[in-house]
Design a protein that fits this description.
alpha/beta, Rossmann fold, 8 helices, 8 strands, binds NADP nicotinamide-adenine-dinucleotide phosphate, oxidoreductase activity, acting on NAD(P)H, oxidoreductase, STEAP_metalloreductase
């Protein structure tokens, strides 16, 4: 199974790439520019202090989407539509994990505030943009900060709240994400639950600012998970 991280050159994407490489997965970094993706591969090698990482490559978002089995979208809200349109011919039959958070920064505001979207959430907006495609959209990673992901010698002390309408695809995504040490995936139900989950992120960002931390995260207690 190949995981393609679209916008994987950025803060969140690169952290996800590193965590899946550490977990032994095959990963492709996608970018608008293939060269930038290749540079990001070199950066991962430097960070992990490995001269060669066989299961990692970098290419355009289009090629990455074409080659990937599971696609992970890690671009800012402003780039969501354009990125999805650029790869729409390559998503059929695949799972697309959406990490997008609709932060107020998209209109010049605070990262501790969200913007309401007509579709209810960024994940539902992704599903609407790809409505003609046979793709299962799963919302995940929204509440896990890049600081946690990039602290890659440590386990991640956070739960990953996961939403999606297709049960089987959601399970595949959760099984994959659970390979990252420390993370516990929680099935929050249908994709519309992303409306709640995405709004937790600006709360966490605000808490990190208030308490001068980079590692504020979320744990749900009291559930018996399989
Ligand atoms: N950072 C976090 O801690 C965090 C936590 C949870 C969720 N998220 C969410 O994850 C997503 C990515 O966050 P991030 O911090 O990684 O963002 P980022 O670093 O600003 O951008 C990620 C990548 O998106 C592409 N991109 C940026 N602006 C673009 C534009 N105008 N048009 C097309 N592509 C553009 C770039 O890739 P190329 O130039 O290579 O194409 C960039 O490297 C966001 O939706 C964010 O809300 C982030």
């Amino acid at each position: 199974m190949i995981i393609s991280v679209l916008g994987g050159t950025g803060d969140q994407g690169l952290g996800i790439v590193i965590r899946f490489i550490q977990a032994g997965e095959k990963v492709i970094i996608g970018s608008r520019k293939a060269k930038k993706a290749e540079d990001a591969v070199d950066k991962v090698k430097q960070l992990l202090e490995k001269e060669d990482i066989q299961n990692l490559s970098g290419m355009s978002n289009e090629d990455a989407a074409n080659k990937g089995d599971i696609l992970i979208l890690t671009v800012p809200l402003a780039a969501q539509m354009g990125t999805l349109k650029s790869v729409e011919n390559f998503v059929d039959g695949k799972i697309l994990i959406d990490a997008t958070v609709p932060l107020d920064t998209v209109i010049g505001g605070s990262p501790a505030r969200y913007v309401d979207l007509w579709q209810g959430s960024a994940a539902e907006r992704t599903a609407e943009i790809l409505t003609d495609k046979n793709v299962a959209v799963v919302s995940a990673f929204n509440n896990i900060s890049n600081s946690h992901l990039m602290n890659f010698n440590e386990e991640i002390d956070c739960d990953c709240l996961v939403s999606g309408d297709d049960t089987e695809s959601k399970k595949i995504a959760m099984d994959l994400i659970n390979k990252i040490p420390g993370i516990k995936c929680i099935d929050c139900g249908p994709l519309e639950k992303a409306r709640i989950v995405e709004k937790i992120t600006p709360l966490l960002i605000g808490l990190n600012i208030k308490y001068k931390s980079h590692h504020g995260g979320l744990r749900i207690t009291g559930l018996k998970l399989d």
